[in-house]
Amino acid sequence: MMNNNFEMEETGIRCDFCPWEDKSVKQADYVNWINKPCPKCGANLMTQTDYENHLNLMMAFEIMRNLTPAQMDELIKKHNPEDLIQLMGKEQYDMLMSADADSKVSLKIDTHEKIAFIDIEIEKDGQPTEN
Ligand SMILES: [Zn+2]
Q1: Quick check: is 8 in a domain?
Q2: Which residues have their alpha-adjacent CB atom under 5 A from ion ligand 1?
Q3: pLDDT, tens digit, for every residue of 66-86?
Q4: 43 pLDDT exceeds 90?
Q5: In this model, does residue 8 exceed pLDDT 90?
Q6: Does 55 map to a domain?
């Protein structure tokens, strides 16, 4: 299963209503984007809720990153598979559970309005694994 070598990738900021995005925006600066309009279509780029979802996710991430491998195993044993399957779908869940310590696991998570799981990619030895 997973090890605890987590990294949070900087993905910039994007509009949910048009193709506008700015990949240079850092997560540390998200606070300055709350309720800012999209330069292209004027939609709200980040609501207060979006920002709070982001903070919650960052906090969960920090907690997981600081777990020892033994604590991580314990957490994995205690999780309710049904909850995760409902969140990410059976196929993606099976992929996640099949990842070993040498794999690089990439999760895409959307924090717009609610925290939603988007996609999972697992690489081993630099190659995407067959699903
Ligand atoms: Zn827009």
Answers
A1: no
A2: 15, 17-18, 20, 38, 40-41, 43
A3: 888 788 778 778 878 888 888
A4: yes
A5: no
A6: yes
Domains: count for the chain: 1
* Largest separation between any pair of C-alpha atoms in the chain: 48
Between β-strands 103-110 and 116-124, what pairing exists: parallel, antiparallel or unpaired?
Answer: antiparallel
Residue 79: which domain range? 13-128
Query: Whats the size of the chain, residue-wise?
Result: 131
User: Quick check: is 2 in a domain?
Assistant: no
Q: How many A from CA of 34 to the centre of ligand 1?
A: 14
Instruction: Identify the burial level of 1 via C-beta atoms within 10 angstroms of its C-beta, where 0-12 means exposed, 13-18 middle and 19 or more buried.
Output: middle
User: What pLDDT score does 94 carry?
Assistant: 86
Would the pTM of this model clear 0.85, i.e. be above it? no
In-domain check, residue 89? yes
Residue 16 CA to ligand 1 center (angstroms) comes to 7
Would you say 65 and 6 are in contact if contact means Cβ atoms under 8 Å apart?
Answer: yes
Interatomic CA distance for residues 8 and 58, integer angstroms: 8
What is the C-alpha to C-alpha distance for residues 125 and 108, in angstroms, rounded to an integer? 20
- What is the overall mean pLDDT for the chain? 83
